[in-house]
Specification:
A: 123 residues; alpha+beta; Sufe protein. Chain: A; C: 394 residues; alpha/beta; Aspartate Aminotransferase, domain 2; Aspartate Aminotransferase, domain 1; 2 domains; globular; binds pyridoxal-5'-phosphate
Amino acid sequence: MALYSEKVMDHFRNPRNLGVLEDANAIGEVGNAKCGDIMKMYLKIEDDMVKDVKFETFGCGSAIASSSMATEMIKGKPLSEVEKLTNKAVTEALDGLPTHKIHCSVLAEQAIKSALEDYRSKK
Amino acid sequence: MALYSEKVMDHFRNPRNLGVLEDANAIGEVGNAKCGDIMKMYLKIEDDMVKDVKFETFGCGSAIASSSMATEMIKGKPLSEVEKLTNKAVTEALDGLPTHKIHCSVLAEQAIKSALEDYRSKK
Amino acid sequence: MIYADNAATTKMSDAAIDVMLTHIKENYGNPSSLYEFGQKAKEVLEEARTDVARVINAQPEEILFTSGGSEADNQAILSAAELGRKQGKLHIISTAFEHHAVLHTLEKLKKQGFEITLLDVHEDGLIRPSEVEAAINDNTCLVTVMYANNEIGTIQPIKEIGEICHRKKVLFHTDAVQAIGHVPVDVVAENIDMLSASSHKFHGPKGVGFLYARKGIALTNLIEGGAQERGKRAGTENVPGIAAMATALKEICSKMEKNTAHVKALRDRIIKGLEEIPHSILNGDAQKRLPSNINFCFEGIEGESLLLLLDDKGIQASSGSACTSGSLDPSHVLLAIGRVHDVAHGSLRLSLGEDLSETDADYIIKSVREVVEYLRSFSPVWRDLSSGKIKHLL
Amino acid sequence: MIYADNAATTKMSDAAIDVMLTHIKENYGNPSSLYEFGQKAKEVLEEARTDVARVINAQPEEILFTSGGSEADNQAILSAAELGRKQGKLHIISTAFEHHAVLHTLEKLKKQGFEITLLDVHEDGLIRPSEVEAAINDNTCLVTVMYANNEIGTIQPIKEIGEICHRKKVLFHTDAVQAIGHVPVDVVAENIDMLSASSHKFHGPKGVGFLYARKGIALTNLIEGGAQERGKRAGTENVPGIAAMATALKEICSKMEKNTAHVKALRDRIIKGLEEIPHSILNGDAQKRLPSNINFCFEGIEGESLLLLLDDKGIQASSGSACTSGSLDPSHVLLAIGRVHDVAHGSLRLSLGEDLSETDADYIIKSVREVVEYLRSFSPVWRDLSSGKIKHLL
Ligand SMILES: Cc1ncc(COP(=O)(O)O)c(C=O)c1O
Ligand SMILES: Cc1ncc(COP(=O)(O)O)c(C=O)c1O
């Protein structure tokens, strides 16, 4: 019964898709520093597919892990699928999160949604 | 720091002058069973001297020790001295008593005083 | 040394000591810390909670760790009173022979306007459920009746009382400090809403206890501060102590049947042996009592000197005599079952340990007989009783 | 493992463990029992009381043993409030950055009609005695100011505050949980009326603490029941724990000078090393702080991830980040000294143990630097700060 599951710790320690995507065409940023969590998602969308994705996160262990997991779950996926990604799916993929950390997975979902909106608004 | 001094325990374990003095001419009894302490002193007074003394006590360790010590302190002593015996002297002779047990030494003093009164009332 | 004062406190079991030491050395982290080392301590804490809950058929989240039985009693009663206050219900029912942790808390509440009914405990030391039922009115917010009395060991009809309280929708608390680990307790089957226990009464460490409070009962904090114990009891958790308590509890409960058979047989042997002392009386019902409890009054003697002489013979026991309590009155428990002062002063409680042997028991019988006879030999009260000057009460 | 969270809790000293074990095995009797075996336990208890009293220059009868610092804080404040109530004085002065054991107790009193003034703690984390004096009015019944803050380690001008309180005839309590054993405390010289301490902060066992209350101050019971602790704190005494606390306290105090010199040097070395991290700030005055305390804020990162990565590197520390407390807001202490939320989330507290080596200190510096740099490397906040999109606050 550590604070986090093995999965969370793995994604926290070795975040996938970390960094900035220079040629992103869809960027979403949610959260605020006052609350201690900011997630920024960089997506490269082509042919209605997420060709590439990277993230930057200011936040706690589960925020970093949630963003990392979320990027893995949408990378290479058609937008129709990406749109349906829920925080619940992210949480489950991480083998669960402590109750008061669920909002981190919500942020991940929102960051992706925000990026998709950005993409659509620019079309 | 046992409950009682060595002296108290010695007099409690090996009470001096325990029992009834068949030819006592001065008997004093104080205390009451309701309060948990009764002391009875049997004195044999001759030529204004305490020739012999015995006691019976219903009570706690310090009550028994106080009566025992008090009998030793008056045995063979002239009445003029016996009259002056105080509870303080008994307590000191016992190397002290716990505060809430001081009343046991008071009972011892009173039992002797009561015996002396008995003696005088019969003269 | 024959330690026969296990109702006062017990020796820690070796298993409990081991567990305590392990956690002191290896898991000293603060359970509130988020690094692995602190989380390990939290894990130990929650395992202990689960273990303790299981023993009384409760849920882990219904267990609150405290510093002992007194704190648990205080918090349970004050919490129920607070809930009562909110509903305008200011009546509490208890019994005349509760532990002071309960009685003094009730006195405090009385000063705050609560009405307190203390039920008669009868000469057998047993509460009558029908009298509980009759005492409950629309203003009653709490019934608190101890599971087993700490002096005379009588075991109350908890299940029946709980059933009445549930039916009447009144909270029911029981001070089970003397019962837990010694008799089976099931908070669900017995309709118990709140229950207090203390670790050092069942071979766990001192300074640890627990309060069971059924889910949904809002507790009032006794100790405010950090968010430990779901915000209901502040203070850095004594993880080694709590884990040791859980270990001791599991251990004693796993041996309960065996312990009970063994101790009960010795108890009854000693009772039989002491009943032969003339003008003596067993206090409390002979059957409905803790397997380990023996409590007698002997006429004509005083308890403290009895204890000291037994101590000289290597036997540790206790008494309800005023002299042993530092107060002027003898035990309120003995007075509550109708013993008059004179007799109550001459009381003796033996609370047996699980490791007592038959030889020990016989030695106890022999020693008590000797000491009672010796003390009577120079007791002016006994003289007056024997000579017929005053009448025997026993 | 480099355990640098000694302000959260400490490891028990070997001497304290030994004493505890000895009494668990050899003196498990109840100090209220009158046989020799119980009286021996009482003797151990009173020796511990004398030892503890001596350390703070108090009298033994001024020491009350409790289950920890929280209980001591609660009882001290409620007692002073009760005394105030009797005189119609319902005003209490405290500070904005007290421990929750104090603040939550004050909130409870506020609901009961008390007026609470929380003094500003300024950016350096230090109370100004003149502001205490100005805040006192005819209704003030208590001033309670912590001796040293648990997060930023600042040591308050206790003697000056005490002097003012004495002159103004107002009771003065100090929560000295973080100070006792770590800096010299003298209740007489410093005009302290009441003081709280907790054993597990100075290598004693958990679940034990004490309250000092100057002779003549009538305490209100928090836990009602038996007559233990002169009737002011019920519950069978945790003699092994109390004796172990006294042992730990004597031990740490005997080494205080040596410890202080050693730990302070390492503290300042680490502070120097961490100050080189750009956009960082030391929280609390650099001089008037506990020898063991280091507290920084680093812009652009969040504390929990910092802690977890330090844990991976074998360093245990703590943070005032909201994420580490389970609440939404970061530490009230950091907010009280004027750190805004964004910055307060990126805080790190290192509280050093006496056995830390210079190598450990250098490893800590290196590790914190690495982790801060790493977390900043993918922090969108840091990016915006670096690019000038938002302004640096530090
Ligand atoms: C300043 C301060 N006061 C009070 C406490 C409470 O002490 P305890 O957790 O031992 O009850 C602590 C520690 O948690 C503290 O640091
Ligand atoms: C029936 C009962 N209730 C409460 C208590 C108080 O427990 P503690 O001394 O552990 O606080 C005791 C024991 O002293 C007890 O026997």
